[in-house]
Structure formats: structure tokens, C-alpha cells
Amino acid sequence: METLILGLPVAYYIAMVAKVLVAFVFVLLTVAYATYAERKIIGHMQVRLGPMRTGWHGLLQPIADGVKLFFKEEIIPSEASKFAFLVAPLVALIPAFISFAVIPFGAPVSIGGYTVPMQIAAYYDQAGQQIFDINVGVLYILAMAGLGVYGIVLAGWSSNSKYSLLGGLRSAAQMVSYELAAGLAIVSVFMLSESLSLHKIVADQAGGIWNWYAFKQPLACVIFFICSIAEINRTPFDLPEAETELVSGFCTEYSSMKYAMFFMAEYANMVTVCAVTTTLFLGGWHGPFLPGWMWFIAKVYALIFLCMWIRATYPRYRYDQLMRLGWKVFLPLTLLNVVATGIVATLVK
Amino acid sequence: MLALNNYLILSAILFSIGTIGVLVRRNAIVIFMCIELMLNAVNLTLISFSHYLGSIDGQVFVFFIMTVAAAEAAVGLALMIAFYKNRESIDVEDVNMLKL
Amino acid sequence: MESIFFLIVAAVAVLSSILVVTCKNPINSALSLVMTFFCLATLYVTLDAPFMAVTQVMVYAGAIMVLIVFVIMLLNIRVEAVKRGSHAVFAGGAIGLFLLFQTVWFLGRGTLSGATGTMDRAQVVKVGHIELIGKALFTDFLLPFEITSILLLAAIVGAVILAKRKI
């Protein structure tokens, strides 16, 4: 009889720690090099070279940036609300990372007789020959996405500066509006998969590119991706930190490591959103020839590239246009999509 | 397994703190938050009863309470904004005249 | 193990809810309340109600509290100017403590009775919590469910009429 802790074998906990470490390090590295990739890609799109001096073709640039920000002076405005000011960067950073707990990033692997699912919050039931994960995974991601707004709102409010306050207000309104449309876009996905477990959703998309939900639900896919970009405040929806009108918005008063944390949170959010889109719409880790995790990474990176491409292409939206787009275009479209999916799914059955 | 009373006592403590908040504070928004706290204490009671009685009904009630709380938040905050526009304050002592 | 976990979560919940009442700054109150909601969501998970836990975070922390924080920021309320007099604080505290005492007193004397169902951990894992809730919601509780939709519609219309300057 093997030893059990809280009803699960010890190997389960070892696998869990290993998965957490791998996923965390992978996301951190991706975040670091996404900043470099963004400067490089946008540079080349604008026929510039981008960073070239630090290392071969500027490859050490993220490290140089990190060192610079680490040694900068820490400034806390004297009129700021101290506690909220200090907590805000953490609150912004953490939700971006913990969404990865439920995302399946590869096919299950067997190590020493144990089958380990490549998903942090999941375990393999030896008796039932079945993988169990959180059966509310999609809702978990939506809930964590909803928490991201607190970091920005707190930063904006606690800085006690009008630009920050405006940035915070804008982001609160924007994120709440777009969260609705993003959530409704996902509804049509789990109407097809008949489950909220991400493992099951990925399993449903197995067997060829035509089984991807991106092809069964093209409208939902596009709307979800656009809404996600709006929710993480990237161009063309980067109103909360618009440099030209709000001098960087909510993070105007931040410096040094706290600013770096907001910066990381922005890129970590981008990686998370791309991973979620991959899982829900692009078949997760499914793909021919290569192992699952490679396909997953390739799809996520392709979406990150798309984000950067969008940033290099589109100008910023105006605030009223942004609100109109969210409430009067995306929300009715997603509702129609849900109704249409329901009708078609019932008829097919 | 923990006894049901643990959850019920925690819920009672939270509910009492909420009550004290409603009675003691003057800021309408803080009072509003204390009411949410009281609703949550009730939610905890319902979910723990649902668990210990082995029935899903309590959790469905929680679902309805959440809906009511959301509706309440929308209307309550709209009231506060309307009041603030007239009075430049959200102190409950300023509302007692029942006129503008 | 389980009781230690419960004690820690309960202690954090009680502390943060005390902060909700005592913080002078409404934003700090709101943050403490979010913390309380998280603790309650954690307890829901231990009570085999994962869907309720996630909904708790999504609806309360993700929607209602964001709305409250948004209004606090919009009206730019910083610190409460005048506190209530000590009489009011004393009376409020006494009433609250009496309420607590009364509840605990009754709890010590009651036993759990009532119709018991068949839902347990094994069933929640096997069937799925959302499936169980969904089945109850769309069969036994269909009428209340439809009525809540009317309630929400009324709330939307009411909020717009109240807050909009010119309709």
C-alpha cells in the first residue's frame, strides 16, 4: 500500500510541484522575451532594427532592462494611499499567473508507472483510468480575468493624481464591459463541448484541424480574442495608459520594480490570453507529428505575434467608440451567436 | 469532517460584524458593503446546510441571492450617484429630510 | 488538517470583515471585503461546491465590488469626515454582540434535522457540480429562475433611469 496524503499518492504532489515550476519559469521567460520580441518585431515592421547593442542582435536587452529597473530609485508620492499603492502591482501581477493553473499545456505523459496530465490542477485516477481536473475551469479563468482590473484601479486611485485616476476609471469601465462580451463568447464554446472542464474541451477538439472550435465558432473566436485584447489593455484599446493623453495613465506615479511589475503583468496577461484562446478555440495541444507541448507553445507564440502585429497596425480607439463597440456591437453579436448555436446544436441532435 | 456548527458560528460572527457596520457607519457605500457582507454570511449558512443535508437546494438559493445582490448593487449605486449629484455627499444623515 | 485549514481561513475572514467596518477609507474597506469573499469562496470549495466558489469570486469580487470601487473612484470619496458619536457606536456594537450571543446560544442547543438528500462528494465528482446545479435550477426552480431574469431587467432599467441625467 502506497502512502496517501489527503487521499492522493505522494507522486501526485511531486508531479504538481514540478508542473508548477515548469509552467512558472516558462511563463516568466516568455514574458521577458515577449518584451524583446515586441520591440524587435515592431521595429522591423517600421523598417527599423530595434535593440541591437546588448548582445547579439540585442538578445540580452530584457536582462539589461531588468537590471536598469531594479536599480532605479523607488518613488512613493507623499499624498498616496500607502497600502493600496504598494499592493496594486502585486494585485495586477498575480491573477495573470494563476490562470495557468487550469490550462492544459500538453498530452499526458507516463513517468515511472504514473500518468501525469500536463495540466497543473489535474490528477490521473489510476483506478478509473481517467483524468480529473477542476470541472469549472473556464469559469475559473473568467473569474481570474475579472480580478486583473483591481490592480489597475487601485494603482490609479492610490496614486492621488488626476491622470492616474482617469486611467483607472477608464480601465474599470473598459474591463467590465469587455468581460461580458468575452464571457458570452465562451458560452457558445461550452454549449458545444457540454463541459466547463478545459481538459474535456481540448479533448473534444482532437482529430484534425476542422474539429477546432475556431472553425465551428468563428464569430465567438474572433470576438473573444478582440475582447481579450481589450481586457488586457493592449493597443488599439490601451486607453488606460494612453501616453499621448494621460501620460501613461494608471502607472504615471510608479517607478522602479513596481513599474516593472505592471510591465510584466501586461505581458503575462497577454501570454495568458493567448494560451486561453489556444485552449478554447485552436485545439489546445493537439496537432500532428510533433509532441503536444510543442504545438501548444507554437500556437501561443503565433497568437502573441498576432497581438504585436495588431499593435503595429492599428491606431488607438476613442473612448466613446470603444464603449459603443463593446456594448452595441459585440454584446448583441455574442448573444445572437449563443442563440444560433443553441438552435443548431438542438437540430443536429 | 468538521462539525456543521463551525461554519454556522463563523457565519454568525460575519453577520454580526455586518450588522454592527450597518448601524455604526455613516458612509452609504460602506453601509452597502456591510449589507453585502451580511448576505454572504447567509450564503455560507445555506451552502454548509446544503452540504451537511446532502441536498443541492441550498446552493440554488445562494445562486438567487447572488442575483438579487447584483440587482441591488446596480440600483443602490445608481441611487448613490443620483444623491451625490444633488448633495455632494453620500452621508446617510443627509438623506433623512426625504427631499432635495 | 482540515480543521487547521478551516481555522486559518475563518480567522482571515473575520479579521478582514472587521477591517471592512473599521477602515476610514472606503477603498480599503472594499479591498477587505474582497478578501472576505475570497475566504468564503475557499470554504465553499471545502464544502464541495466549486461552482458556487467560482461564482462567488466572479459575481461578488469580479462584478459587484468592481462596481462599488468604480463608484467610489467616480465620486472620489476619500476619508469619512465626521464619525458617528460614541453613543451610536456603543449602541450598534451592543446590538451586534447581542445578536451574535443569541445565535451562538441557540446553535449550542440545536441539532441538525430536516430532509436529507443524496448529494455527497462522490456524486459531485462523478456527475459534476455544475450539472447538479443546472438540473435543479431548470427543473425544480424554473419559475424562480425566470422571475430573477425579470428582476435583473427591472434593475437595469431602474439603474439607467436613476443615474442618467437626461433620458
Key words describing this protein structure:
heterotrimer, A: 349 residues, mainly alpha, two-stranded antiparallel sheet, 12 helices, 6 strands, 64% helix, B: 100 residues, Helix Hairpins, 3 helices, elongated, quinone binding (chain A), ubiquinone (chain A), NADH_UbQ_OxRdtase_su1_CS (chain A), translocase (chain A)
Give a written overview of the molecule:
The complex is a heterotrimer of chains A (349), B (100) and C (167). With 349 residues, chain A is mostly helical. Chain A has a domain at 76-104 and 135-348. Chain A contains 12 helices and 6 strands. In chain A, the strands form 3 sheets. In chain A, strands 1-2 form a two-stranded antiparallel ribbon. Chain A has a two-stranded antiparallel ribbon with strand order 3-4. Chain A has a two-stranded antiparallel ribbon with strand order 5-6. In chain A, a hairpin with a 4-residue loop joins strand 5 and strand 6 (130-133). Chain A is globular and about 60 Å long. Chain B has 100 residues and is mainly α. Chain B has a single domain (4-91), classed as Helix Hairpins (Orthogonal Bundle). Chain B has helices at 4-24, 28-53, 57-87. The longest helix of chain B is centred in the C-terminal third of the chain and has 31 residues, at 57-87. Chain B starts with a helix and ends in a 13-residue tail after the last helix. The model of chain B has no long low-confidence stretch (mean pLDDT 86). Chain C is mainly alpha-helical. Chain C has 2 domains: 1-79, NADH-ubiquinone/plastoquinone oxidoreductase chain 6, subunit NuoJ (Four Helix Bundle (Hemerythrin (Met), subunit A)), CATH 1.20.120.1200; 117-167. Chain C contains 7 helices and no strands. Chain C is globular, with a radius of gyration of 20 Å. At the B-C interface, helix 1, helix 2 and helix 3 of B face helix 1, helix 2, helix 3, helix 4 and helix 6 of C. Chain B: It is a multi-pass membrane protein. Chain B: One of its GO terms (biological process) is ATP synthesis coupled electron transport. Chain B: It comes from Geomesophilobacter sediminis. Chain B: Keywords: Cell inner membrane, Cell membrane, Membrane, NAD, Oxidoreductase, Quinone, Translocase, Transmembrane, Transmembrane helix, Transport, Ubiquinone. Chain B: NDH-1 is composed of 14 different subunits. Subunits NuoA, H, J, K, L, M, N constitute the membrane sector of the complex.
